[in-house]
Design brief:
This protein is an alpha/beta fold. The chain has one domain (4-222): 3-Layer(aba) Sandwich (Rossmann fold). Helices cover 30% and strands 29% of the residues. It is built from seven helices and ten strands. The chain has helices spanning 46-53, 76-86, 102-107, 121-127, 143-154, 173-190, 201-206; strands spanning 4-15, 18-30, 35-39, 61-66, 69-70, 87-90, 161-165, 193-197, 209-214, 217-222. The strands form two sheets. A six-stranded mixed sheet has the order 6-7-8-3-9-10, sandwiched between helices. A four-stranded antiparallel sheet has the order 2-1-4-5, covered by helices on one side. Helix 5 (143-154) packs parallel to helix 6 (173-190).
Length: 223
């Protein structure tokens, strides 16, 4: 079985008296260790698909198996454990808590329920090149540094899958290139399955495959 298997995923939202189809019969599979870019214009269903892959939402119909588990059949608590133990998340707006230091932001997921021990925070700081910033707070960091903190936080539980939503969207091209290099290293050297939603053509071109969405429907293509 593939690490991720989606069959006829459909997600319909109710907006007043209207049904809005965000995704329609989307099917694909992702193998362990792949680097996938989810691309498409605004409103094509990219964010909806990422929310389904992250277990933060459920499909209206169809099935999604994540690490051998049918997500729709899990209880809320089981989905929470699946997210905690299998997934790491990186967001466009970084999602750092302003009152916490870099070190505290990275450590935060360890305070949210039990999980198997991950790498020491000092090791993660060195990995992302921020050992000298460990006691700084987010407002003292550049955009690229904040994204590196967010990536380190996502790695604190050794996820099998890293989901990144526009990870270079708020960065200049040079800083974005450095974040891409870090993500590629995690994929190639650590074997983390990387799934990225992006409008950045350079980032999309680096992926092994693209899942291209248009009006909620999927067309898969090679990079």
């Amino acid at each position: 079985m593939s690490l991720i298997e989606a069959q006829n995923l459909t997600r319909i939202f109710r907006r007043g008296a209207e049904d809005v189809r965000a995704l329609t019969e989307v099917s694909f599979h992702i193998e362990e260790g792949e680097f996938i870019a989810i691309v498409g214009p605004s409103g094509s269903g990219k964010s909806t698909l990422l929310q389904l892959l992250g277990g933060m939402d459920l499909p209206t119909s169809g099935s999604l198996c994540l690490a051998g588990k049918e997500v729709s059949r899990l209880s809320d608590a089981e989905r929470t454990r699946l997210r905690r133990d299998t997934l790491g998340f990186v967001f466009q707006d970084f999602g750092l808590l302003p009152i916490l230091t870099v070190e505290e932001n990275i450590s935060l997921p360890r305070t949210l329920g039990k999980a198997s021990p991950g790498p020491p925070v000092a090791e993660l700081l060195e990995r992302v090149g921020l050992s000298h910033r460990r006691h700084h707070r987010p407002h003292q960091l550049s955009g690229g540094e904040m994204q590196r903190v967010a990536i380190a936080r996502a790695l604190v539980r050794r996820p099998r899958i890293l989901l990144a939503d526009e990870p270079t969207g708020n960065l200049d091209s040079t800083t974005g290139a450095s974040i891409l290099s870090l993500l590629e290293e995690l994929n190639q050297n650590d074997g983390i399955t990387l799934i990225v939603v992006t409008h950045n053509e350079t980032l999309a071109a680096a992926a092994g495959r693209r899942l291209s969405l248009q009006d909620g429907r999927l067309q898969e293509q090679n990079s």
